[in-house]
Amino acid sequence: MLTKIKNFFIVLLLVLVISQFLRPEKNEGSYDSITAFEEATLVSSEVKTILENNCYDCHTNTTRYPLHTEISPISHWMAYHIEEGKEHFNISKWELYTDEEKDHKFEEFIEEVKMKKMPLKEYTWIHGELSSEDREKLINWAKEARTRAKEKPVDSLLVKESDTIVVDSVKVDSIK
Ligand code: HEC
């Protein structure tokens, strides 16, 4: 029995050592794409710090990699969540979302932060909980930014959009 347990740990150790060489691709795009989002949504420096410390790692193309995230299996776990997080909400692609999508993202944002679903639990184990004051600041900013965006839609101003899309947005506007 003892040798079986010993063998198990030797195999486990080998797997862990080997997996250190299987490094997931890093998420290290330019910060410029985030700047576009921050300017469009009028992020204050205070809110910017909260977003940087709690959300950007999984929801932008620019993740910070502290030492522990270099170690497998944490590195693989992180890569998986970044991929998932960006698929649902990618701040680096903010400008590519339509007005309607942006509005929906804000709605989800407010909901997820309010319900304490974001940042993910596994992330706060290492990075620490988001304080209730910071939660409140994020929610207030998101609500304001959502209202501002509604008052100033940008889709119809896009020159790049095809005629049909512009016609669509005019139609939608006239229904409201
Ligand atoms: C460790 C990675 C991670 C961190 C950190 C993180 N998220 Fe997420 N987020 C995810 C993943 C994965 C999903 C998709 C699955 C889910 O909803 O649980 C998601 C989903 C979301 C969604 C839903 C988008 C949609 O349209 O369904 C919003 C909004 C969101 N996150 C906002 C935030 C905010 C705000 C923060 C910071 C306070 C944050 N997230 C921090 C990984 C993360």
Description:
The protein has 176 residues and is an all-alpha fold. The protein has one domain (23-175). It is 64% helix and 0% strand. It is built from 9 helices and no strands. The protein has helices at 2-19, 32-40, 45-54, 56-59, 74-88, 99-114, 121-127, 132-151, 163-175. Helix 6 (99-114) packs antiparallel against helix 8. The longest helix is centred in the last third of the chain and has 20 residues, at 132-151. 18% of the residues are buried. Residues 171-176 have low confidence and may be disordered. Bound molecules: heme C (HEC). The site of heme C has 20 residues, from helix 4, helix 5 and helix 6.
Set out the fold topology.
Elements: H1 2-19, H2 32-40, H3 45-54, H4 56-59, H5 74-88, H6 99-114, H7 121-127, H8 132-151, H9 163-175
Helix pairs in contact: 6-8
This protein binds heme C (HEC).
Keywords summarizing the entry:
mainly alpha, 9 helices, disordered C terminus, binds heme C, 176 residues
Can you summarize this structure?
The protein has 176 residues and is an all-alpha fold.
| SSE ordering | HHHHHHHHH
Separation of termini?
73 Å
DSSP strand (E) fraction? under 5%
Shape: elongated
**Overall structural domain count:** 1
Question: How much is the average pLDDT?
Answer: 89
